[in-house]
Amino acid sequence: MTSGIALSLPEIKIEDRPRVGGKGFALAVMARGGLRVPPALCITPEAYQEFVAVTGIRETILLELGRKSFEDMRWEEIWDTSLRIRNAFLQSPPPESLREKLIPPLEAMFSGKAVAVRSSAPGEDSAKTSFAGLHESYIHIRGTESILEHIRLVWASLWSDRALLYRKELGLDVQKSAMAVVVQEMISGERSGVAFGRNPLDPAQAVIEAVYGLNQAMVDGTVEPDRWILKRDTGEVISHHEAKREKTLAYAPGGVRLEPLAPELRGKAPLERADIGEVFGLTGKAETIFGSPQDMEWTYRGNLLFTLQSRPITTGSSGADDLRPWYLSLHRSFENLQGLRRKIEEELIPCMVKEAGEMAQFPLAPLSDLELAGEIERRLKIGGKWDEQYKEYCIPFAHGMRLFGQVYNDRVKPENPFEFMDLLGGVDMISVQRNRMMEGLVGRIRRNPRLAESLRRGRKEGLDPGFLQALESFLTQFGDQSWSKARFDRNPKALFTLLLNMALQNPPRRGSARRSQMALEKIFFSHFEKDRREFAAELLDLGRASYRLRDDDNIYMGKIQAQIIAAAEEGKKRLRSRGRILPFRVEGMDVARALLDPRYRFKKGSSPGMEADKEKAGVRGRQIVGQPASSGIAAGKARVILRPEDLFAFKPGEILVCDAIEPNMTFVVPLAAGIVERRGGMLIHGAIIAREYGIPCVTGIPDATSLIPSGTRVTVDGFLGIVIIGETALPGK
Amino acid sequence: MKEKQQIKEILNELFTSQKLAVLGTHQGGQPYGSLVAFAATLDLRNLIFATTRATRKFANLQADPRVSMVLDNRSNRVADFRRAVAATALGRAREVRGKERMRLAKMFLAKHPHLKEFIASPTCALVKMRVEVYYAVWRFQNVFEWRVK
Fold first, then answer.
1. Which residue of chain A is at minimal alpha-carbon distance from B84?
2. Which of A138, A528, A711, B79 could cross-link to A150 by cystine, CB 3.0-4.6 Å?
3. Tell me, what's the pLDDT at A320?
4. What is the mean pLDDT of residues A103-130?
């Protein structure tokens, strides 16, 4: 075994394989086999071990991963956990002892040249499993300090959200796991791509893909490549798929940038016949060296062909019910996110508004039963279509906040890894506009005791015209808003009770958020060179759009949902008028069927909500740990939200306990003293709205609605993410 | 019910892996903690420990039988914050005699055979704590309560 913690490729011997990881070892083997490989240094896992031991990060990771069992964590919580760990790495400079070992070899090999810093975890590129992309790689890094910083970020990615999803397969263990890192000189090729020595779809073929510029844009799908299918035995081209060549990823000061492709290149494939032969030849050589067909990355600088990476081709596919590949796909590039934003803002939302409006205008009463059943089914189909669109575009776009957060943390290195959220907040979300309108109504009630009295008694007189007008315009805009069956325009009495309850407490203070936001914005921009500020501004804008749309698109979805419910309710009304008894929960499809067939039998109804087990055979939750989502401490009576009625009965000062806060129910948030949510995460609706109002909030409490009985005293510790249930006095004392 | 199952598992873990626990008594409102060798009955409802009658803890529990016991499996490493579990038991303690003493002494000695002479001493009292409530703690700060009926 070679000594030292930074090994150059010629120094790496066969027995160093476990130390340098799959990527590092493959580079060493290729260099030895005569392939042109950029100079590289492998930083061995001993460096990682020393770093996490001296800085105490190993303990931080233990604590972070120990908050909650993985089985109870949603992907969002895993992302949060991973961000906290990443921040711990960013916050801890490498100890002097480590610097002394790393700086001399780094300076000797790269002295000012741009490098790529890549993960090389053991087993990462093995033939059985492909974990490519679970860990981070950074390109175009220049300067020793910057390289050291990115080595830390690559180390942190041993605990990336993606890696944590695959923790079992990777055998992640805080005490034992470590990461090797490859630092490799960047080759700024003019033409780049990948090559598969064997087509995963057809073993008789090989595949080459190529783009102008750098190949990162191709790997994440931003730039479409030209593709050649070849005969694996002879290299003869079977087909050539030409791309629409419009863009190219090129180096820019401080990073890479997507640029329009020069017009003279647009009509010309990135590889000529001879190049195709040379790249194909590369796959043959690599297959001989490694003994199995390879998946390779390559680039041309001038006429010199460089091999950047090589790994065995994997064919492993996960089962259909494995959601992890979908979660992985949520990580998007800046360009991809910008595309999603345009799609959502310019296409999906106007279309949703239009479709909901059309449905609302469509009179249901004159329909025959047959027609109504058809209309219910049509609306269900529309809902299904929007669910699909939501999953395809809106959920991935929420990653915009995360991308912004990552860049913010990398640049600003704040102590609190979620500081970036303060910079995104305060945008004019529709739910906040709605709450403001409600606050306007409540203000009138506070000022006018006669009005309050009339509302309390459900009397018409005393309702002043100003109030009626404001109410009218509120209902026009938000009357159809729906959470489950909660609609403002369905039950005026419930709405009045809610407004009266709101009037009991002081107007909500919406903190000095704006001022501190301006200061944060300044700090953020100051961390970018002048010529990158425009990019920083675009990224901030994207982050804010992601933050706002994440809330807004649910409101629009709610409008569609309300119309589905309206049709189903019309059906139920008719069925009930004929004396049919409906189960507590009945789906629209069942209503449609029952309208068509008077003998239709409903499925056995489920019980009304999840009633809290007060004393599960003597066992009660006393203190439960979740995620601190909005700081502060509050105590009060729990109000567990199981049905729409619970929302409207909400009283000021109560603790809102629910499964998941949705934008369509956040109107009660200003009333709540604290919030407890089963669904976990820092970037979820409940957490966002709680921070907007400065209300303590803990998310990610497993079984929150069944462990906390409504009416019990609950203390919400939003600093530590702890919920304490019950009085502090001992039982029977 | 997964929480109840989890509490029972934690208690069983602690009762089998641990030999010592911290007994809490008080004297005129002043709390008093002592390390004792303990054993638990199979139904998890009783905790047994031995003490000489001259000790302060014995005097304390004679004056007020309300006691607590803390059991845990910490290893004094940081990993404890993730892995260690603990339980606090509240209940009433009294000295056992006669046949009950013989039966419980046998059970106690099965776990602590080296305390044979100690138990046999006429000055040694075998004490049974009847548990009313357990508070089980896992993952650093998750606390669940089990009222033993």
1. A66
2. A138
3. 59
4. 79
ipTM, two decimals: 0.73
CA distance A2 to A5: 9
Give me the mean pLDDT over the A502-507 stretch: 79
Are A731 and B133 inside 8 Å of each other by CB? yes
Instruction: Flag if B139 and A67 touch (Cβ within 8 Å).
Output: yes
Taking residues A494-507, report their average pLDDT. Answer: 83
CATH 3.30.1490.20 fits A6-185, yes or no: yes
Domains in chain B, number: 1
Assign A609 a pLDDT band (cuts: 50, 70, 90).
very low
CA–CA min distance A609, chain B (Å): 18
Across the interface, of B81, B140, B144, the residue whose CB is closest to A619 is B144
Instruction: Calculate how close chain B gets to A619, using CA atoms only, in Å.
Output: 4
Which architecture, in CATH terms, is A623-725?
Answer: 3-Layer(bba) Sandwich (3.50)
Cβ contact, residue pair B81, A620, below 8 Å: no
SS3 A255: strand
Neighbours of A656 (CB within 10 A): 30
A211-234: pLDDT as tens digits: 999 877 776 667 889 999 999 999
Number of neighbouring beta carbons within 10 Å of residue A687: 29
**Shortest alpha-carbon distance between residue B108 and chain A (Å):** 27
Residue B140's domain spans which residues? 2-147
pLDDT for res A299: 94
- B4 chain-A contacts, CB cut-off 8 A: 616-619
Quick check: B107 and B39 in contact, CB under 8 A? yes
CATH of the domain at B46: 2.30.110.10
Helix axes A533-577, A588-596, angle to 10 degrees: 30
- The residue of chain B nearest to residue A720, with distances taken between CA atoms, is B141
pTM to 2 decimal places: 0.77
Domain boundaries of chain A, sorted by first residue: 6-185, 191-312, 333-606, 623-725
Instruction: Collect all residues of chain A within an 8 Å Cβ-Cβ radius of residue B148.
Output: 618
- Residue the block writes with tokens 């590369």: A282
SS3 A611: coil
Is the per-residue pLDDT at A386 higher than 60? Answer: yes
A191-312 carries CATH number 3.30.530.20: no
pLDDT tens, position by position, A568-587: 989 999 998 988 888 777 78
Q: Identify the band that residue B77 occupies on the pLDDT scale cut at 50, 70 and 90.
A: confident
pLDDT of residue A221: 66
